[in-house]
């Protein structure tokens, strides 16, 4: 019998397949590594599950990319230590997106994983010190700090790193720990710990014995005993009738009772308390409530979009400002939800679009989830799980929402698709969410709707090439007219001191006229702070950031000079570092100074400012918008924040205070960006009655973009831009890759840039520009050099060039002189 069982086991072990797996680790590794799956983990190790692996004596939580039976020939793979999930954390579609993103945007799958997974689903390696029983109790060879830790270890047998930090009350505990390990007082065990914890609330319920009305009445009639407890019980009964469920904290607050009084009722067996896991995100209702009908023109556009989807995957909805694109989106979302599909609605900056959030929550209630950086880590995990289970049908999110684990995606809406905020800058992956959305949707055979009043040149060009479908909505909702745009020549304005004019006579008059008829005004200025720079009036010296090659901006409310690149604050300079003079003047103006000037000029008006200095909190922006909607603010001064996704009925005047600052950038997209910004700002005026006016203060009235803006003519801008883009080899005709080379020493960065250029010149000399330094050539003490590569739209050529760039970077960084040089490829820069 024993022999037969042994033979049977031997037979099974020879026929059972030996499995290996590719694991993505959240590190910038050039490729994924292979691990051996031991037999006891073979059933649990599935694609998409998190696994515990060891690499260079450190433990990591990676994700299985694929399972196979191909043993590597060049090395002996290590074993998986553990499988951390019962079910996969991500679906194959997400893993395919990560792979495509890493290949296209020239980064590693580990970097994509790092960006994709919410921080509380990433497991962290935390050291635990284990007491060595063989050490004994002779602590004479230890110093004071070592003695404290050893004594605690002897008592508790193990300590976490965080506990050692608390014990010693210092952050730098590693030297102490290292000495204790060297002296064999303890040893280290690495534990991967789960960060996510579900939120619990204590719910109060009535004991089943007292759900009988007669028995309950018997207690309530006997109020002479413990009257406070009886009042608390009455409060509970009232609350449970109104709310359905009662949370302990809510009950104590409503009844003004104490925990002791509640405990008395629980001890008597009248009430029961129990802890339950609850959602962190509060929902309103479960039903889809669409309480409006589309206009004839809107319905026509919605039908055209659906017709395009019969033939093409992507459609561009080019609708002028206030044409009611959001209502079309809502109706399309409703159709897909009714089919049981999931919808992703992406906006460039979710924190700036509280109006749209409120509208969608009203229509879709618990069916919709909001996903953005202002949510805390645990809230994000809950949203992640609900989307993965398809419990949540609609997601409204910023670019990071593209990484969510959709189960059955039917439609992606990319609103304001032209916005540069859809492009991730740092860290890697430096992806463009609009373009990545097109690929991601293709994995589900889903559709993509791009929407904008001022489309990107690339998207509109794709429509002209029949790659995307195009639906045009030229009419504002309810036939409201587009605002009248007037140009004000600031050169003709007489001023006492040199510098930019903030408020011309024409603008002041127009603001007063709006206030007189109880209308609201928006003033747009593209610089925040009080004064963009201070200058010595004697010698012309300007205070600059010590870490970056930029001037410091004066912020009056903080009375500090601030660098807008690295965020460093400096005290206000009163003495010139060059000549010793105390005579400083402030040049130009930001939103803070503009707000002050407007408040002085219009003392009776209520003035507010909207920029990153005033809306830092989670709900600051939403609160400010509500005040403006309720007409408790007359004049709103702001940066680009006032442009995005705002719809105010009573605004009839918009002032673009300094158009020159928008028109005079050295960038091939300057005309496109200026048109988009001015057209979007102007679109905030006259949205209900059509009596809107836009005043543009500018010194160069002959700039071609201004004429296009005056006529609201996107097609003319597109034709004008296309001509120059083709001639100078820019998108949409060419693909760009920008190579950014950084080092703390300028000459080393320059040398590395030239070596990289020489390596690429062999095959790509006709496509290279640079190396050159950008306008701001030092940020956070790193000098910057750039090489621009303009490649024809040839997939094979682009792929080969990317491979050679990666090879050249490896060659440069293998040289000890350039090991610390950072080289960042930025594909499709914006």
Could you characterize the architecture of this molecule?
This protein has 830 residues and is an alpha/beta fold. The protein has a seven-stranded parallel β-sheet, sandwiched between helices. It starts with a helix and ends with a strand. Strand 16, helix 15 and strand 17 (447-452) form a beta-alpha-beta unit. Helix 2 runs antiparallel to helix 15, helix 8 packs across helix 9 and helix 21 packs parallel to helix 22. The protein is built from 25 helices and 34 strands.
In DSSP terms (H or I, runs of 4 or more residues), the helix count works out at 25
* N-to-C span: 74 Å
| Low-pLDDT windows of residues | 1-15
Classify the helix fraction into a percent range: 25-40%
Radius of gyration over all CA atoms, rounded: 32 Å
Helix/strand-derived class?
alpha/beta
Major beta sheet, specifics? 7 strands, parallel
Which band does the percent of strand residues land in? Answer: 15-25%
Q: How many β-strands, per DSSP?
A: 34
Mean pLDDT: 83
Shape: globular
Strand order of the largest sheet: 14-15-13-16-17-12-18
Provide a compact summary of the structure.
The chain has 830 residues and is α/β, with parallel strands linked by helices. It has 25 helices and 34 strands. The strands form eight sheets. It has a seven-stranded parallel β-sheet with strand order 14-15-13-16-17-12-18, with helices on both faces.
